[in-house]
């Protein structure tokens, strides 16, 4: 490695060569970010202010909304500012921080979605046991366990990535720092890193997807057996949830396991946008804004605020 040089910063290449991404950075990204913040902030406010939503389902939903606001805030605002100012440099420490936070939020996103699917399974398939199983202590422990798992998972991948030597280039073909882009810049052997990524996706992603699918299979089976309950309500919530999780996992898989030859394509950037922006944006629509209880809670909170001002 005599010709290698120490990398002190990375350059985020916000668009593939030859592509004008102004519409994306000045319209799609800001509107998606604003919609995500407003939708999730509304959920956090309502589930906190209204005592009728003091249930395990809305406890996890509030945590998911907070996580979603953090998730999209890690990448989108910085990418828009970089594109606007033309200053796309990011320090090694800043890049490591961004990678750590993206992996942490992505991991916890899957864990929270899995817990919420299992919560619905217990509520519908074991209603008499629901207060015993989903007690407040258990909910807090599950949340803390998810956060701790995300911290460990993100720490392992971030540390493993920045143990490598970077000498080929400092240009990251992405609008934020991610592990696959840095592995392509390394002059070290990245075989162990790729194996770890593959195993992680199979265990974390496959395990979470399996829990969600099995939970909904049991939910659909139970709902269809009870003749006095219409299955439409269960399908209207479960199906979009499965679709969002599918988009999330398929885009992550496409980003982290795609060949290096396609690293600077528009497809790679759009896949990254899918897993960092689509779930945080759609989760409020799926879980709350289409939910009758949440709509009624929003109405009650607004009425209380109006009466308090009089």
TrEMBL record:
Query: What keywords were assigned to this record?
Result: Cell membrane, G-protein coupled receptor, Membrane, Olfaction, Receptor, Sensory transduction, Transducer, Transmembrane, Transmembrane helix
Q: Which GO terms describe its molecular function?
A: G protein-coupled receptor activity; olfactory receptor activity
The record places domain G-protein coupled receptors family 1 profile at: 39-287
Cite a GO CC annotation: plasma membrane
N-terminal signal peptide: none
Residues passing through the membrane, by range: 23-43, 64-84, 90-118, 138-156, 194-217, 238-257, 269-289
How would you describe this protein's topology in the membrane? Multi-pass membrane protein
* Subcellular compartments: Cell membrane
Q: What is its main location?
A: membrane
**CDD domains from the UniProt entry:** 7tmA_OR14-like (cd15227)
Family assignment from sequence similarity: Belongs to the G-protein coupled receptor 1 family.
Q: What does this protein do?
A: Odorant receptor.
Protein known as = Olfactory receptor 14C36
């Amino acid at each position: 490695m005599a010709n290698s040089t120490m990398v002190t910063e990375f350059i985020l290449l916000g668009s593939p060569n030859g592509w004008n991404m102004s519409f994306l950075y000045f319209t799609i990204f800001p509107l998606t970010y604003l919609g995500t913040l407003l939708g999730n902030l509304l959920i956090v406010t309502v589930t906190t202010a209204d005592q009728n939503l003091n249930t395990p389902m809305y406890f996890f939903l509030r945590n998911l909304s907070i996580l979603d606001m953090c998730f999209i805030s890690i990448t989108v605002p910085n990418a828009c500012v970089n594109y606007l100012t033309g200053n796309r440099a990011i320090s090694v420490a800043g890049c490591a921080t961004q990678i750590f936070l993206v992996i942490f939020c992505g991991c916890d996103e899957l864990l929270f979605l899995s817990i919420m699917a299992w919560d619905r399974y217990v509520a519908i398939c074991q209603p008499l046991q629901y207060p015993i199983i989903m007690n407040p202590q258990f909910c807090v422990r599950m949340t803390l366990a998810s956060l701790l798992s995300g911290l460990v998972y993100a720490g392992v991948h971030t540390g493993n990535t920045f143990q490598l030597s970077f000498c080929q280039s400092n240009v990251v073909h992405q609008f934020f720092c991610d592990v696959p882009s840095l592995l392509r810049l390394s002059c070290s052997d990245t075989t162990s890193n790729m194996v770890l990524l593959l195993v992680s996706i199979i265990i974390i992603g496959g395990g979470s997807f399996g829990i969600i699918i099995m939970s909904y299979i049991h939910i659909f089976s139970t709902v269809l057996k009870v003749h006095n309950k219409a299955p439409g309500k269960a399908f209207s919530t479960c199906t979009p949830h499965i679709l969002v999780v599918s988009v999330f996992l398929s885009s992550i898989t496409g980003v982290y396991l795609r060949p290096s030859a396609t690293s600077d394509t528009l497809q790679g950037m759009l896949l990254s946008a899918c897993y960092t922006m689509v779930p945080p944006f759609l989760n409020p629509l799926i879980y709350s804004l289409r939910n009758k209880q949440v709509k009624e809670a929003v109405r009650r909170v607004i009425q209380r605020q109006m009466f308090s001002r009089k």
